[in-house]
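HUMAN: Now follow C-alpha cell order:
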Amino acid sequence: MTLILTNDDGIDAPGIRALQQAVPGKTMLVAPRHQYSGCGHQVTTHKGIAVEQRGPGEYAIAGTPADCTRLALTQLCPDLKWVLSGINAGGNLGIDVYHSGTVAAVREAAIHGIPGIAISHWLKKPLLVDWAVAARWSARVLEVLLAQPLPPQGFWNVNLPHLEPEAGEPEIVFCELSTAPLPLAYRQESDLYHYQGEYAQRQRTPGTDVDVCFQAILPSPSSMSKLAPFSLALEF
C-alpha cells in the first residue's frame, strides 16, 4: 500500500519529514517545491507544471498542494490508497480548512474517492516545535485513523497541541468542525487595508475543534476538564 505525502509548507519543510517518520509502510513524497501556505484549493490549469524527481519516490512539484495530489493520482502513483498532508507548522481549525493548502491536498484526494488525513501542529509562542515529538504523536493518530473506515469523499483533519516539554502525552479527541467565522478587522493606511483580526479571539462553540484545541492555551471555566488534546474532525 502506497501512501502519498504532501503539504503546503514545501518539500524541504521539517514537518513533511516528521510525517514521513510517522507513517508505517511505503510512502511517496509529492510536495510543492516552494511554500504555498494559505493558498486554499488553488489549482494550476493554464500553464505547465514542472516535476522534479529528487530521488526514489520523491518529487518536488512547481505547483500547489492540490496540484500535487492531482499529479500523484494521475501520473506518479495511480494505485495510491491514501493521501496524507502535513505536518503543517500552524493549526488548521474550523473554517481555516477553506484557506489551508494542507487541507486542500486531502480534500482533492477525497473528491476523487481517495481517503486522506491532514495533520497540523498548533503553534504556541515562544515554544519551538519538537518535530520528533510531533512525529511520535502523528504515529499514534495514524495507527487509529488508518484503520477507521471513511464515508465516501470523507477525510480527517487533525490538529496536534503545542505543549511544554515536561507535559504528558495528550489524549485523542474526536470533535466537530467549527463553522464560526474568524474575527474580521482591518486597519486602514492611506488606500491600503491591513487585516488585523485576532485569531485567538475567534468564537469557541462548545465541543467543536476550536474549543477543544483552545482549552489548552486559552482555558475557560467551562473547558477545564480536558488538557491539551488532539482534535480530529471528520469532513466532507
Remarks:
- The helical segments are 14-22, 65-76, 101-111, 131-145, 209-214.
- The chain is about 20% helix and 25% strand.
